[in-house]
Amino acid sequence: MLLNPEAGIAHLFEAARRRDKAEKRQLLVAALRQLLDDGHASARAILAGPRGGLACAHRLSAVMDAVVIGLHKAATAHFYPADNPSQSERIAVVAVGGYGRGTLAPGSDVDLLFLFPHKQTAWGESVVESLLYPLWDLKLKTGHSVRSIDDCVREARADMTIRTALLEARFLAGDRSLFEEMTRRFDAEVVEGTAAAFTEAKLAERETRVQRAGASRYLVEPNVKDGKGGLRDLNTLFWIAKYAYRVQDVRELVAAGLFDKDELQMFQRSEEFLWRVRCWLHFITGRAEERLSFDLQRQVAAAIGYAGRSGQAPVERFMKAYFLIAKDVGDLTAIVCAALEARQQKPRATLSRLLGSFTKRTRERSLGHRDFKLTSQRLDVVDDSAFERDPVNLLRLYEIASREDLAIHPDASRLVTQSLRLVTPGLRNDPEANRIFLEILTARRSPEIVLRRMNESGLLGRFIPDFGRVVAMMQFNMYHHYTVDEHLIRAIGVLAEIDAGALEAEHPLANEIMPSIANRRALYVALFLHDIAKGRPEDHSLAGARIARKLGPRFGLTTAQTETVAWLVEHHLDMSTVAQSRDLGDPKTIESFAATVQTLERLKLLLVLTVADIKAVGPGVWNGWKGQLLRTLYYETELVLTGGHSAVERKVRVQAKQEALRERLADWSSADREAYIARHYPAYWIKVDPEQQEKHARFLREAEQAGRTTATIVETDQFRGVTELTVLAPDHPRLLAIVTGACAAAGGNIVDAQIFTTSDGLVLDTISVSRAFDRDDDELRRAERIAAAIERALKGEIKIADLVAQRRAPPPRGQTFQVQPEVIIDNVLSARHTVLEVSGLDRPGLLYDLTTAIGKLNLNIASAHIATFGEKAVDVFYVTDLTHAKIVSTGRQLNIRKALLEVFSIEGEKAATAKSKLPARA
């Protein structure tokens, strides 16, 4: 039936001529169901072969053609034959939209136009219904419209979506002359003379779409269909080219002068790759899934046949290929836009309408080099041999664009890509070329934009081969939102933002100290290089430091500047790690970090670099809580580096805090104030700020006056992005486990815990939970529910284990990510406590399970520090035994490590068991 659907239908109806109409319909649907199943099976087999992406999409479209043509034959020859049809009893069945292009993915919609010469007749209505009902019975997602030729012309004029659908109309069955009349009038009455308007509308529509799907083409979970650099971008390019150049096939664009042969191959290669990925997504999931999520990336990579190589996993190699294709699609977009602008079918930038010829001549003179000119107010080369004459011009193009704040003409960018062979070792070591690069990198005006242009043209990776190794490199984890090269470029953008004094409210300390940094160039270079060694088998910080020592002299840095850059790259994670996973109130923490940093200048550099690094990871990763931790670490370390923080200094600070609290509690009697102050140990006075100390004092007093030993209060902190729950309860080893369990059961995500024990046997815990709502009143209601659950659990009214079990769900990424659990036991990091650092795959209830295990080991938790990096949890506990001593026994340490590792292994067994019980997916 696939090769000759009309003959197949005739044979089916001949065999069923004695059956009634209902039975014939059932036989028809069954036959078509078999046709679809066989067609999908053959398409999947084609997809598994070489260059099978487009071939699969074409096969699926051909199968659907056979179904529609067969249904039309059944309707017009068997169910509703018109023996003597009138002029109005004519119909053309037309494929439109993606189906009109002759390509379908396994889960794609089927868009049909039922075309009539005039308004629909009763016969026509019956025919349309007899086509649609079987399609619905086959569970196909069918979009349809019923229009006359006049309707098509009128609606296409008014609606760009309808116009685009008709642009790709393809005749399937019925009256071909009707279809040809429609296409003739569409070209003459809709398309003619409207290319500029269509182009502008399609590009605006594309901008809206990619913003909705994710503005960067380097998002690590891209949308294959609608994301930037995806299939829809290729479709848009061809729609515009087809509309403007009046071609029917992409190959005709070479003769039209839009693409050269290499660019045509780039288009075809991109289309083939993206169709292959999209078809596998649909087949693997059994639905129209367009988002290449972490869960699916491994499966698609395996289906296509990627293998590991050079320290990269198969999935990372696959995703690098994906992002390089997305980059190619971006290059093609720029080429089409430039060509259309040259034909004046795409409106020029608004600036060009405002600037007069005098301004243009002035700017041309100010470019400062004879090999460059302005074309349509964009920076361009004077001729195609500009880079051949002087390869340094490759860098100079971007320097002038940065200095003069000019857009680069797409023709010039295209020529850069075609001239990359000129980037030789001689150019890489040319002092002038490296001076220019450093000027671009450290420019005060938009270095991020210019660096991204250099990267997209391919120049950045060619000029700095170590950077070229991380271009389009994905890190297969949930923490990083962008590819490595995109992260590095975005980090430079954040640094420039700080350098300009922007967004001070988000990172006040970084903005405050940036003007006082003496080594600004070293900071920019270090930030640009901090992740440049990602993807190598060794520690990327150490390998990156070696690369920095090699590149520093090449860039023209002094020996001292190069060593500063290398140190920053080697230690770029230290400040974030210490701030988020160490007890900042422990003197040993600060002393150890100060010993690493050594100078105040390095401390300043490392703070600003850390802020920029975290902010560039992705939306929502930076928050006020992390900022507060970094500021605390900075100020505490600054004291040590400037000669303070001795035992005497610490005692003075405690006394100053106590005196400040006395002033705040002026309404208390002197005896009450002194009695309260005596209840707290020195660590409390160092860690807690005076405002919070006053709140604690009044909270404890109110609880005592009410006769309560168990109480809670909640408070929101919008700046830090957390909600604080303060818990008062009698001390016992499992207290933190109960609190964390209640938070987990109520959906609270704990980011930090401060634990203080009073001299009279009470515990004052402050639990910081990530905000879930923007509005304070909504957040407070949620926090109060968590606090109520904590109080009930502490009183024994509810069983925390049961609540956590109800809340616990199979980890959504558990089958996708593997994180080797690790337990580190350290007695050096703190003078008074043993430090347990536990890392592994994050999941709901993990912190509760860990604190429960620690409680069962009869350990006191003095403080807990919780950090999550995507799918990886890193939880650090400062503990002692029940006599408040460190854990020094080797046997005891082995038991602790075993018990904490079992928390992960038991959950892994549960996940494996649950997975084995799931029905096999077709």
From TrEMBL:
Its cofactor is Mg(2+). GO terms for molecular function: [protein-PII] uridylyltransferase activity; phosphoric diester hydrolase activity. The keyword Cell membrane does not apply. The keyword Iron does not apply. Residues 484-606 form the HD domain. Its EC number is 2.7.7.59, 3.1.4.-. NCBIfam families: PRK05092.1 (NF003467), UTase_glnD (TIGR01693). Belongs to the GlnD family. Modifies, by uridylylation and deuridylylation, the PII regulatory proteins (GlnB and homologs), in response to the nitrogen status of the cell that GlnD senses through the glutamine level. Under low glutamine levels, catalyzes the conversion of the PII proteins and UTP to PII-UMP and PPi, while under higher glutamine levels, GlnD hydrolyzes PII-UMP to PII and UMP (deuridylylation). Thus, controls uridylylation state and activity of the PII proteins, and plays an important role in the regulation of nitrogen metabolism. This is Bifunctional uridylyltransferase/uridylyl-removing enzyme. It comes from Bosea thiooxidans.
